[in-house]
Amino acid sequence: MTHAKLFPLIAAVPAIAFALSACAGSSDDQSADAADAANGEPVVVYSGRSEEVIEPLFEKFTEETGVPVEVRYGDTAEMAAQIIEEGDASPADVYYGQDAGALGALDGAGMCAPLADSIANLVPATYRSTDGTWTGVTGRARVIAYDSTQLPADQVPTSVFDLTDEQWRGQVAIAPTNGSFQAFVTGMRVAAGEDATREWLQGLVDNDVQLYEKNGLIRDAVDAGEVQLGLINHYYWYTKAAEVGENAMNVQLAFAEPGDPGALVNLSGACIVRPTDNADGARALMEWLLSESAQQWFVETTFEYPLVAGVEGPDGVPPLAQVKGPDIPLAELDDLPGTLLMLQDVGLT
Amino acid sequence: MTTSPAVPQLSLQNIFVGYGGPMVVRDVTMEVEQREFVTILGPSGSGKTTLLRAIAGYLRPATGIVTIAGTIASNERTWLPPERRQIGIVPQEGALFPHLDVAGNIAFGLRDKKKARARVTEMLEMVDLSGLEKARPHELSGGQQQRVALARALAPAPSLVLLDEPFSSLDASLRFDVRTQVRRLLADIGTTAVLVTHDQEEALSMADRVAVMSAGRIEQVGAPWTVYDDPTTLNVARFIGDLVELPVTEMQGASAHTAVGWVPIRDHSESESSSGRVVLRPEQLVLVAERGVGPDPQGVPGTVESIRYHGHDSLTSVRLNDGPLVDVRSAGGAGVAVGDVVRVVVTGTARMFADPVV
Amino acid sequence: MVNSMRPPLLLIAAAVVSVAVAAIPLLYLLVRTSSAGWNAVVEALFRDRTLETTITSVALVTLVIVGCLVIAVPTAWLLARTNIPGRAFFLVIAALPLAVPSYVMAYAWIAEFPSMSGIGAAALVMVLATYPYVAIPLTAALRSIDAGHEEAAQSLGLGPLAVARRVSLPLARPAAAAGVLLAALYTLSEFGTVAIFRVDAFTRVIYTAYRASFDRTTAAVLSLVLVCLALLLVVIEARIRGKSQRWRIGSGVSRPAPRQQLRTRGTVLGVAWLVGVAVLSLGVPAWSLTRLLLESQRSELDIGELVGAVVGSVSSSMLGAALALLLALPIAALAARYRSRIVRSIEGAAFLGHALPGVVVGLSLVFFTLAVLPAAYQTLAVLAFAYAVLFLPKAIGSSRSAIAHVPPGLESTARSLGRGPLRAWCTVTGRLAWPGIAAGTLLVFLTAMKELPATLMLRPTGFSTLATELWSRTEIEAFGSAAPYALTMIIIASVPAWLMGRWLARSPETAPSTDRVDDEMVRTDEVAYVGGVR
Fold first, then answer.
1. What pTM, to 2 d.p., does this model score?
2. Which end of chain C has fewer CB atoms surrounding its CB within 10 Å, N or C?
3. Chain C residues with CB-CB distance to B under 8 A?
4. What DSSP designation does B231 have?
C-alpha cells in the first residue's frame, strides 16, 4: 500500500474512533436502551463472585423484574476496596461478596446504606449485621476436599491445624485471594487468636502449600490427583457432581470436626452502597435476592444453603444445622483488612 | 621476516583475476625488489585495486603465481589466506576498529602482549602521534586516522606493506604533508611498499618505480622520469602529465612534420609507418613574442587564447594559425597576454605513436 | 537539517502542555504515595516482601537477558553472515513473535502444559517472545559491518574465528545491547505472563496488592520502586545508543562483508537450530491454539461477546492512538527541528513514559480520577488517556523522524511564497511527513490493542477488550473458550504489523544493498516500535 493510499485511511482514524466509541461500552448502552424500554436505570453491582457462576442469577432478576443490571466482576476484597476508594464518587449501587469480613469492612468505612427492616428481618440474626446494614444471602460451609484414590476417608485430617504436618508437604491447596478463604482466616483469628493463625499460615507456606486462584480450580486439581487435599466451599463439589455424576469424581468432601475453624459456615452477602443513585433499583435487587425465587435458584444451581426461612436446603447436602463451625457470630468477622495484611506478610498474597 | 638479499620481495607472474566474468586483471607480470616503493597508477576501473586485493589474499587469481619473499602465496595448487601472508595493509578508508582506542588498534596484530605497549609507543612516535594512545578513532582527524592505520599495519613489522589509495579521503591541503611523512617513514624503516593510486602526482613524487595500469594490463613499469619523459604507449603518455598531441602530416627520415613544425622523433626506425601522431610535453614548447622576430622566424605563429597561471608556472593555450590548440608551459609568468600573437617553438625530441584504433 | 534558532514560543508552550499532561500519572502516584505518610511508605519499602519481589524481578530479567542472547546471537550470525538457505524465510520467522502478545504466548504454553509455572516457565516464554528485539537489530548490524574492518583484521593475522570474536561481534555489540535492554524493559513491565505463571515479580505483586488489600499504599510504593528500576534501564539504553552513534567514522563507501560459505554439516546444524527456534517460539503456540480452537467448537462461542470485545479493543485503541498523536505532535515538531537544552529536556521528559509499566499507569489513574476527576472514573476517556500516556514515546519517535526527513528549506520556501507559518507547516511539512506520522499512530493503535493491566483496572463496567476477555478466561483456566479471543487478537494485531513491515521495507531509510534479505531489515528503533515495548 503506497503512502498515498495510507493517507485517507489513517485520516479516517479519529472519525472511526468516535463512531466506535459511541457504540462501545456496548453492553452499557444496549442495556441502557433496554432499560429505558423496560423499567428505569440499571442497577450497578460490584460482585465478588465470578461471572460464570453468578451471571445467570442477575439475568434471572432482569427477566423477572424488568430491571436491568450492570455487573463489575472481581474479587470480594478487591471490589470492597474499590468501593471504599471510590467513596462518594462510587458508581456502585449494590455490593455482593463472598465474605462477611468484606461487608464488615464496607460498613466500617461507612459505605453501606441501612436496609429496611422488612429486608433485614428475612434472614436470621447470625447471618446479618447487627446494625442492619448488610445481610447474608446464602450460606456455605468450608470443607476439606480430598482425593479418594490416594486417601481413604479415615485418613483425612479432621482439623485444619493438621495440615501443616510434614506428611502433607506440597499436597495442600488453598486460594488465598478468594473471599471465602479470607473469611475463613478471619474466623480462625477470632476463634484461635492472632498468633496461632499467623503460625499456621506460616506453617502452610513452609510446608509448600499450593496456591490457586479459585476454588473450582482446587477442586479440579484434587480430582486430578495433583494435590491430595484442598480447602474449598462445599458447593463446588455438588455443582460438579450434578454435571458429571458422583461416581465419576475422585474428589470427595470431608467436614472438619465441630468447632474447628475449618468447618466455618460463612455466607455470601450483599449491601446497598450508600452513595447509590438508584435506591429503588438497589432495594429491588436486595429484596429479590432474598426472595424464594432467588433462594431456590441458589439451592438448585449452586447447592448453597438458603438463609431465608421456608426454603428447603439443597438435596444431598448435610443440613446446615449439622455443620458446626466455630461459635462466632459472623458479624464479628469484620477485620478483613487485618487478614489481608497478615496474608501479605506471610507471603501468600 | 627477513628475506635473502637477492630475492624480490614480491613477484607476480602472469596474474589473471576476474570476478566470474571477463578478467579484470590481465596477464600482469612484475617484481618488486626489497625496500622498493612501487606505485601502481591507473584510472578507475583499470583493475589496480583488484590486483592489490589479489596480492593481499582477499581474492584468488584465476591463474598466475604470486610469490612473497620467496614463498609461493598463490598458484594453481596452493593459496595462502590473508592472515598467513604477513603483509601489512592500509585500506582506503583506514578501517580503524571503532570499538578500540588507538593503542588497541595498533597492538591488534601483535602476538606478544607484553611487548605490545612498548611497540605501540614506538609506532606512535614514528607517525608523529605520541600521546594519543587512549584516543578513540572518532576523535581523530582524517589525517591522524590514516597515520594510525599505517602504524597498525606496520606494528607487526611486515616486510611488505600494501596501500590502497590511502590519501584519497584526505583534504587536498593535508595530502601533501601526510604523503611526505609516510614516504619518509617507510624509507626509514626499509619496508617494501606497493601503493595503488589514480593520482599521478602522488605516484610520480613518491615512487622508486611506477607501474602504469590500464584496462587490466600493466603498460609500462619504470622510474617516474622514465615513465614521464619516455612513455612506451599512447595510454601511458596520455595518463601521465599534460600532453600535446599532434597528427603527423609528413615524415622525413627521423623527423615528423606537425602543426608546430618539424619535430625530431626518438627511437624511430625507417620501417615504421609514416603516419600517426606525435606526443610532446608542454614544457617542450617555447613562446616567442612576434615582434621580437627577425627575418627568419622560428616556430609557427598563433594567437594566445587563454592563460592559466599557477604561480610556479603557467600553461598558455595558443591557437595556431593552422587550427589546433596547443598548451605551452613556461616557468613563472607567461610574459604574454590573451590575444597576443606569438610564435611557438619546439625543443627536444618526441615520441611518435600510431593512431589509436577507435 | 536541525537548526539552533529559537523555536516559536507557541510550539514550546504546546509541547510543555503535552508533557505535563503525560506526566500526570507519575506525578499523581508520587502525590498519593506521599499523602500516605512517610512512615507508611518506609514501612512498605523495607518489608521483606519488597526485597523478595525485587530479587524475583531482577532474577527474571537476568534470565531473559541471558536467554535472549543465547538464542539471538547464533540466529543473527546464521542469517547475516552465512549462506544458509532460506534466509528471507527465517528472517520473517524471527520477526513473527513480535505480532503475538507475550501473554497470549504464555496462555498457549500453559494450555498445552498446564503444570508449567514459576520463574523458569515465565523466563522461557518471555525469551521466546522478546528474542526478536535482539535478533533483528543484531542481524542488521552484523550485515552492515564494513568488510574493510574484517579484512584489516585478517591482514593483521587473525583467522576467521578470531575475526568474529575480536572484530565483528564487538562492532555489533551496541545493537545487541540496545535490543537486550528493550527485552529487559519489556520483561520488567510485563504483567500477563508473570501472572499466568504465578511469578511474584513486581507487576503481579502490585496488581494483587491493589486487588487484595484495603490499603493501596503498598501498591503505590511498589509501583515507585518498579518505575525506578525501569528508569534505570531506559537511561542505560539511551547511553548505549549515544555511544554507538559515535562509532560511525571514515568517509569511504562501506562494503558488506562476504557471507561465510557453510559446508554440509554446518548447513544442517544451522538449519536445525533455526527450525528449532521457530518451533519453540511459533510452532508450540500455534499448535496449542489450533488444538484449543478445534476443541472449543464443542463449547459455545458467544459471538456477541466476541464482537463486543473486538469493538471494545478497536475503539479504545483508536481513541488512545488519536490522543497520543495529538499530544505527540508539538513535541515531535519541536524536537525534529530545534536543538536546545529546553527542547532536549522536553523530549527527555516525554520519554519517561517508556519507563511506566501499564499496571503503574492504571493504578495511578485510578487514584487520580477518583480524587480529582470523578466524572472521568471508569470511562472510555480515561482508558484512552492511559494508552496515550503509555505509548506517547512511540508516537513521538516516529513523528519526529518523519518530520526531520522533510528538509526545512521547503517550509521556508513556502513562507517566502506567501504562506503563514502554521499554514506552511501544515501544507508542506505536515503533508510530507504524514505517512510517517500515520505509521506511528498505527503503531500506537497496534500496541494499545495488546495492553492488559491498565485496561483491567480502568475500563468502564461492562466494557471488555479482547485482552481482558482472554485474561479472565485464562484466570479460570477455561483455555478452550479463550482460544477464539487469542486468535482474533493475533489476526487484528498482525494486519497493522504487516502494513508496517511493508512500509518500512520500502522506506528510503532502509540501507540499500545487493542482498534481497537486507531489504527486510529494520533498525532497532523501528523493531522496538513494531513489536511494542509492552
1. 0.76
2. N
3. 146, 148-149, 151-159, 166-167, 170-171, 173, 246-254
4. -
Q: How far apart are CA C499 and CA C443, in angstroms?
A: 10
Q: Which is nearest to C315 in space by CA: A20, B345, A333, A330?
A: A20
User: Chains A and C: how many Cβ contacts under 8 Å?
Assistant: 147
Structure ipTM: 0.71
pLDDT tens column, C333-382: 888 888 777 777 787 777 777 778 888 899 889 888 888 888 888 889 99
Residues 397-436 on C with a CB inside 8 Å of A are 434-435
> B161 near B90, Cβ under 8 Å?
yes
Do A and C share at least 3 CB pairs under 8 Å? Answer: yes
Using CA atoms, how far residue B193 sits from A178, B186, B217, C133, C459, in Å, is: 83, 8, 20, 47, 75
Kindly state the cell numbers that stand for A122: 428475612
Chains with 3+ CB–CB pairs under 8 A to B are C
Q: For residues C211 and C206, give the distance between their C-alpha atoms in angstroms, rounded to a whole number.
A: 9
Cell output for B64: 598466475
Chains B and A touch (3+ CB pairs under 8 A): no
Rounded distance between C-alpha atoms, residue B50 and residue B44, angstroms: 11
Cα(B279)–Cα(B245) distance, rounded to whole angstroms?
Answer: 5
Q: How many whole angstroms separate alpha carbon C508 and alpha carbon C498?
A: 18
Identify the DSSP state of C168: I
| C38/A contact by beta carbon, under 8 A | no
SS3 label, residue C411: helix
CA dist A98 and A112 (Å) reads 16
Taking the mean position of all CA atoms in its chain, how far away is CA C456? 20
Write out pLDDT tens, residues A193-236: 899 999 999 999 999 898 888 888 899 889 888 889 999 988 88
What Å distances lie between residue A310 and A117, A292, A296, CA to CA?
18, 8, 10
- Cβ–Cβ < 8 Å for C504, C520: no
